[in-house]
Design a protein that fits this description.
By secondary structure, the protein is mostly helical. The chain is built from five helices and no strands. It starts with a helix and ends in a 6-residue tail after the last helix.
């Protein structure tokens, strides 16, 4: 765990400039509509199965699986209750991509094979200032 925290200190975190999100109130069955927004890749957040595995398993997983897992972690922590528009989906995807890069850096560290992904992700999310809305 100490190795992971030390590795995190060398990861540059910056916040991308994003326009303020427009909150849309709608019935749960209604489709999201935001005419000025570009389409978001369909269902990128689905299929994550790396929530509680070793970093060795993480290292060998597909990028899609990593991205979906990172999106799950963020959606259930700092982003909980803040994903309301397509803009929010784009912003959480950017944060998930940064989280995947950080996890990949930790997973590449020597002697990190059997550390738990959930614990490492929790530390990264807690220590980063750009993973939340």
């Amino acid at each position: 765990m100490v190795l992971a925290v030390v590795s995190l200190l060398s990861i540059p975190f910056t916040r991308e400039a994003t326009p303020p999100a427009r909150v849309v109130t709608r019935p749960a069955t209604q489709q999201l509509a935001h005419p000025a927004a570009a389409p978001v890749e369909a269902n990128w957040w689905q299929g994550g199965r790396l929530h509680n595995v070793s970093l060795l398993t993480w290292r060998d997983a597909s990028e899609a699986n990593k991205l979906a897992t990172a999106g799950d972690w963020l959606a259930n922590t700092k982003w909980k209750g803040h994903v309301n528009t397509p803009d929010d989906l784009r912003r959480i995807r950017l944060a998930a991509e940064r989280l995947v890069r950080a996890m990949d850096i930790v997973a590449a560290a020597h002697n990190s094979d059997y550390q738990n992904t959930g614990a490492i992700a929790a530390g990264i999310i807690a220590l980063s200032n750009d993973s939340g809305p």
